[in-house]
Design a protein that fits this description.
The chain is of the alpha+beta class. The protein is built from 12 helices and 16 strands. The chain is 28% helix and 22% strand. Strand 4 and strand 5 form a beta hairpin. It binds flavin-adenine dinucleotide. Flavin-adenine dinucleotide (FAD) binds next to strand 2, helix 4 and strand 9.
Length: 372
């Protein structure tokens, strides 16, 4: 590929930059197999919406394998509610296709207009509806994998954990069979909240309601940026009629929620983190974040927060990690490790990951220098 065109494949939404040896765009699984068999070092790329640098090539040694052209939608079994799709299918395209049959895929992250199924599986993506539907790993029947020799394997439920959430260090996901749900008719409410303590108490109550599919938190700064009042807000989504906002009003609220990422990035808060903490530690973490002026939103129903740092504020990130660990939280609730958090992986986890890598990728071909 021409050097000037390669630039777009040397970064991702984390805004980290690397250098590629070349970029290739296979259109079929056969092409993936033959490229993989003859290439010594490969970085796997979905849509590049990852926020941890997982698909950024390092040191000019890696060939970027762009999987976005594997965008075939295969057979849909409406009775058993499963569908086979290529790794390159954009989530939004899948949802639109399924809606015609009154079905949906329950994992719905905010990057849905761009992110593709292979990248979502590799990061074990969660969506705003994690409180009800968990992670993508719960919605996969099998995946087809290409190994470092170019061989194709089908991996069922018992072997999924070698590939789902492994951020592409173990093999290329080329196709998957996904489980579906009947299309839901949802409603929502937008609630203004006076204090962080009140947020905790409301969220605790709401979590008892099994019809709730989303509880999103907006801090004062983000609320103001979205043209709400300068207060804390909760967006609460229901899978029944309980929400005050229905049909067009519901859709407008969801559109507003989708603007959060572009708002924070346009305001210069381009480094978005994803710590996860227990709800009873929320006030402590938020008070620290507010103390250093970090705008924050997140999936409060499951304890995942997105503090957004400007360039000048990035110096606070290591300190925030320490606060999160002190509060017994996780440093990454949904974006993964990639390159950005490689030094923060726990020694015990690292040993397990190295063993899985040796077993699944003995040629050490895929995403070298990522995660471990
Ligand atoms: C605006 C915005 C909103 C977001 N919202 C959410 C959210 O709500 N929830 C959430 O979980 N994430 C979210 N993310 C993060 C990101 O969208 C997800 O991690 C997404 O699943 C990545 O998909 P992708 O296709 O862009 O993958 P990429 O960024 O291209 O790749 C991600 C990782 O997967 C590997 N990979 C890609 N394709 C394959 C494959 N076929 N086989 C093996 N490995 C592969 C790559 O090497 C890399 O390590 C958001 C990001 C943005 C920019």
């Amino acid at each position: 590929m021409r050097k000037d065109l390669m630039k777009a494949y040397e970064s991702d939404a984390s805004q980290l930059n690397g250098k590629a040896l070349d970029v290739v765009h296979p259109k079929t699984i056969m092409e993936v197999r033959s490229i993989v068999a003859r290439t010594p070092r490969i970085v796997l790329r979905g849509a590049g919406t990852g926020l941890a640098g997982g698909c950024v090539p390092l040191n000019g040694l890696d060939v970027v394998l762009d999987l976005s052209k594997l965008d075939f939608i295969g057979s849909l079994d409406k009775e058993r509610r499963v569908i086979e799709v290529g790794a390159g299918v954009v989530l939004d395209d899948l949802q639109n296709y399924l809606a015609k049959s009154n079905l949906e895929f329950p994992i719905d992250p905010s990057g849905r207009k761009v992110c593709i199924i292979g990248g979502m599986i590799a990061t074990d993506a969660v969506g705003s509806r994690m409180i009800k539907y968990g992670k993508i790993s719960s919605w996969i029947k099998w995946v087809d994998i290409v190994d470092g020799y170019g061989n194709l394997h089908r991996k069922g439920v018992t072997e999924l954990s070698d590939y789902v959430g492994m951020e592409g260090i173990t093999g290329v996901i080329v196709r998957a069979c996904l489980k579906l749900l009947p299309l839901k008719n949802r409603t929502a409410s937008l609630v203004k909240v006076e204090s962080l303590e009140e947020v905790v108490s409301i969220v605790r109550d709401l979590k008892r309601n099994s019809m709730i599919s989303m509880i999103e938190f907006l801090d004062k700064k983000i609320s103001k940026g979205l043209e709400l009042t300068e207060d804390y807000h909760l967006i609460i989504e229901y899978e029944d009629d309980s929400g005050l906002l229905k049909e067009e009003d519901y859709r407008e609220l969801m559109k507003m929620r989708d603007k959060i990422y572009s708002f924070v990035v346009n305001e210069g808060y381009a480094r978005i983190e994803d710590p996860r903490i227990m709800i009873d530690r929320f006030v402590k973490l938020m008070s620290w974040l507010e103390g250093v002026g970090i705008p924050t939103f997140g999936h409060i129903g499951v304890g995942i927060l997105h503090p957004c740092f400007s360039r000048d504020q990035e110096k606070y990130i290591p300190e925030m990690m320490k606060v999160v660990k002190r509060l017994s939280g996780q440093i990454s609730g949904e974006y993964g490790i990639g390159i950005l958090k490689i030094n923060l992986v726990d020694m015990g986890d690292k040993k397990i990951l190295i063993n899985v890598k040796k077993r699944t990728d003995p040629l050490n071909k895929f995403n070298v220098g990522k995660v471990i």
